[in-house]
User: Fold this.
Amino acid sequence: MKAKQLMIVSSALIALFLVVGSTAVPAANTSQTSGEGNGTLVAAGDQKVNINTADVTTLTTLKGVGPQLAERIAAFRKNNGPFAKAEDLMQVKGVGEKIFERNKEIIAVK
Assistant:
């Protein structure tokens, strides 16, 4: 009798795992905000990166922007104040037209 009960329980567990495993799970939302109301977003889908509030890690989500360039962008912003328009990003040493063009659709200045 015990073997039969064990077989029933095992079958039920397998069926449960199959049902749960085949259920669609929505993808995790990878966008993040850092800080209350500062508008910093990670570049994903149609979301924008606010270059006036983004931290160094968020700035590295821009295409062609590594940690060193992100540090330069943050330092430029600290020393010169917020960017008035997205194109002002090209004033940062290392950010040329090519990098700007690759990112202009996801750059925000608020």
Observations:
- Residues 8 and 106 are 55 Å apart (CA to CA).
